[in-house]
Amino acid sequence: KCITVSNLSSEDMPLRPKLLDPFGGFRVLSAMRSVPPGGERRLFIDFQPVMAKKYRELWTVRTGRGSMRVVLRGEGICPSFRLEPEDTSQKTIDMGDIFKGEKSERTFKIHNTSPFDLPYSLVFTGGVAQPNIGPLPPFYTRPAEGGESHEVAVVFAPDHEFPYHQQVLEVKVPNQQEMCAIRLKGRCWEEGMYVSGGEWHRIEEDVQKQRSLLGERTAADELPRQMTLTCRSIARPGKPASCSLVVGNLKSTQAGAANGEYQVSDLSAADKAKGWNVDVPKAAIPPGTHKQVVFTFSPPWEQPPDSLVHFEISEWQELKVDVLLKGGAPPPRTASSTRQILLTVRCFLEPAREEDKIAAEAEARLNSPEGRKPGSPSKKASPGRKR
Q1: How many domains is the chain partitioned into structurally?
Q2: d(CA 323, CA 301)
């Protein structure tokens, strides 16, 4: 704001202002020179609030003939905006599974709900996204900054295989009170058939980049790949736990598309006795689709004497199977065109609880032939009360 001071006298009028509160939000930008006779001086006042509240301050300027008092008022307003969909900043945006060198896009909208123009910028602040071989990053936005409400496109464009691309996209505005972060993740593959959901062993970034640059089969391609799948819940006798992985088949604009299939090796009799099971051990996967394969661990009540749970001690239980991938475009880069994955499924097993045993025994009695026998004695009704 500008305040104009006029000198109506025939003498110079010096200006000696009182200092403003350094934490009040107001400050004087103009030099306080004297005002010549019949002249005027323009004083500029800047308002920069540091909090969202109403400000009021009395500013006094002394002259040779008296004092001038000016009431300064202002209101600090927090910048506000919203994202659409509204839960964009509360969940992870999955960019999906794509073939190397291709792109996937997801969009969201930024709406400025402030009563003033609000410039913003989109900055990647963290994550485990590996840099591309080429000049572009695996994640970028279009546009990267702006000042109006409009749609933002997030682009996922990796150029080599890596199953753990993750980054955090932060929306930044001036005087921001709370951080607004959007989590991103995506997966990139070199073969049409893929498996995700578990933890891969020995993801060597430099080796994968070198393989992408060479574009030819190497000795490492013939080796089986290893993955570990861990159940998030805890199992107990009478309380099963399950976990799943995803088997998919890419539909690529570069490599085309072809039918694929997967097969989980047969479970041994010992694994079945422990309570392990897989819902669909073999299936065909059409291009552009994926299937969830569920592994369930249902430990029996009677645990073998060589197990720790038999002695009331918790332990990890493991299932080791082979997962074979065939088909897809391009097919696996092996001599047999089959990708072998050594899968280890892990689940934490606790001893049975007393309340679980009581509930299981009650259910067993209820489902037994004696419990369902007709004509069993029923509870006799109490006689009614006479009035």
Answers
A1: 3
A2: 30
Q: Kindly provide the b/e burial profile for residues 36-51, where b requires at least 16 CB atoms within 10 angstroms of the residue's own CB.
A: eeeeebebebeeebee
Write out pLDDT tens, residues 150-162: 899 999 999 888 8
Q: Which of 124, 265, 248 is nearest to 193 (CA)?
A: 248
Q: In which domain, by residue range, is 26 found?
A: 2-75
**Residue burial 272-297, b: 16+ Cβ < 10 Å; e: rest:** eebbbbbeeeeeebebeebbebebbb
The C-alpha angle with vertex 124 and arms to 118 and 128, in degrees rounded to 5, equals 160
Q: What is the mean pLDDT of the chain?
A: 86
The pair of structure tokens assigned to 3 is: 């305040």
Supply φ then ψ for residue 112, to 5 degrees: -85, 115
Neighbours of 363 (CB within 10 A): 12
- Identify whether the C-beta of residue 108 lies closer than 8 Å to the C-beta of residue 83: yes
Picking from 166, 189, 212, the residue at the C-terminal end of a domain is: 189
